[in-house]
Amino acid sequence: MRNSNFSFSSSLSKGFTLLEVLIAIAIFAMLSLTAYQVLQGVLRSGEISKEHSESLTQLQRAMLIIEQDFTQIVARTSRDESGEQDKLRVITAGSSLFDSEDQGIEFNRLGWQNPLGLLPRSNILRVRYRLQEGQLQRLYFLYPDLVAGQEPEVQVLLNNIEKLSFRFWNNGWQSTWEPEKKLPTGIEINFTSKHYSEIRRVFLISAGEVIQ
Question: What is the mean pLDDT of each run of 10 residues along the chain (212 residues)?
């Protein structure tokens, strides 16, 4: 009887020591930290992938708008607020134009749909491109001939843009376009993005008579 009682009481006294509990807690904490780091890495990778996808979508949308504008350029001069039309060119381009922090450009394009002329605007769209506050901005007017007090609509195409420039093809590339009533046969747009570095596109321009 004495031997059996001693064995029973000894088994009850056995358990985890403080050191064993601390080791178990440390192991559990390390496993939890590792799992948290893996989860954070997966979430961060998902965020980076989403940001890249959205940025690429924005770039594709911007390039589509730019292509539509430049491939539908029309040789039309426009009046400014002063009403003097003969001094203007079919394409106006240069540094610091239209409050641009680099180069800017202005021209008229066809193809702005106005079914049956029901909308209070022309089917010719006057557009400008400029760089301002790190944004590639597209400005457009409801009418190709400006009236006093008319302000353009501003559309932000891309953010984080550092440089913007244009070149014109006429038996060779030119940094400026001098002929007042003639279109070049090609226009190059070149801009530098923080995400995609340098982006360059060249558009062929159709020749046409000047529209007054």
Answer: 50 64 83 81 74 84 94 82 61 91 92 61 84 95 75 92 94 87 91 90 79 58
The answer to whether residue 95 is domain-embedded is yes
Q: Is pTM, for the whole model, over 0.90?
A: no
Residue 142 in contact with residue 165, Cβ under 8 Å?
no
Overall domain count for the chain: 1
For CA atoms 68, 70, 75, 79, give the dihedral sign: positive
In a domain, 156, yes or no: yes
Comparing CA positions, the residue from 105, 107, 87 lying closest to residue 96 is 105
Determine, yes or no, domain membership for 169: yes
Let me know how long the chain is: 212
